[in-house]
Amino acid sequence: MHPESEQFLEFKSLYSLADHLNCDLDQLQNELNVIKPMIKDENLKSIIELYEKLRPYKEAFPTVMSMITGALTIPVSSTTCERSFNYPEAKKEPANTGNYRRGRKEKIKGVVLHGTAGPNAVQWFKNPKAKVSAHYVVEKDGRVIQMVSEDDTAWHAGVVSPNSKYAKGPNPNSWLIGIEFSRDRNNANKMPEVQIKAGLKLVKDMKRRYGKQFGVYTHDQFETTRTCPGPKFPVKRFKDAIKG
Ligand SMILES: [Zn+2]
Predict the structure, then answer these.
(1) What is the pTM of this model?
(2) 22 confidence band (pLDDT: 50, 70, 90)
(3) From the CA of 113, how far away is ligand 1's center (Å)?
(4) Residue 232 Cα to ligand 1 middle (Å)
(5) Could you tell me the distance, in angstroms and rounded to a whole number, from the CA of residue 45 to the centre of ligand 1?
(6) CA 35, CA 37: separation in Å to the nearest integer?
């Protein structure tokens, strides 16, 4: 429904959203036939501008108006729109869509800390061959990159060792957010303070958004044979950061 798109207000492109919202499709078509000439020369820049433009005539366009309010308020995971990204300070670089699953089967209960065991995690998650991903990558210089919406299931902690206390529960990916911290091949380097601080800020923001039940986990709690996030990772600072 973006105004700059060629299909803006084309019936076909609105069909799935209209259907989702149980709109009357014939009525929708009639309304669009009236609206299109009205806004032809308006050069509207956003759906909100369209909403403002139509508001004085809202009685005439009940279907379109309810679709706009629907599009602005229903969770992105249940529409065909672009995914929502959760942390405004992160640079957005979407992972390949084949490297994660849309939606979640469980409520989010925490975050898993990982070390990348080498460079170029961002490029790898964009590669369709990877079949792995994390929601965030925190680079050594403190840059934070969001690659998967928290509303979706990234693939970073899905292998659970039989001796893990989580072996019998639901797949960790379904209830956890994953953060990869760029580290050396052995996940053993001393981490730059700027990288740690960026990670702490991100995790505190998650805690604020997910509340009491939100906890900090490490990859080796699930896959116990891993050295991840690795030695010299300040796990305690992350756990302390979300206390209280
Ligand atoms: Zn890991």
Answers:
(1) 0.69
(2) low
(3) 7
(4) 15
(5) 42
(6) 6
pLDDT tens, residue by residue, 63-119: 888 777 776 664 444 443 456 788 989 999 999 999 999 999 999 999 999 999 999
CA distances to 48, 84, 154, 213, 238 from 201, rounded to whole Å, are: 31, 20, 21, 18, 9
Q: How far is CA 81 from the centre of its chain?
A: 13
Average pLDDT over residues 177-204: 98
Q: Which token pair is 84? A: 């929502």
CB atoms within 10 A of CB 40: 8
Question: CATH code for 91-241?
Answer: 3.40.80.10
Q: Give the position of tokens 């050295």.
A: 227
Given the structure tokens 């956890």, which residue do they identify?
Answer: 176
**Domain extents in the chain:** 11-78, 91-241
Helix (H/G/I), strand (E/B), else coil: 103: coil
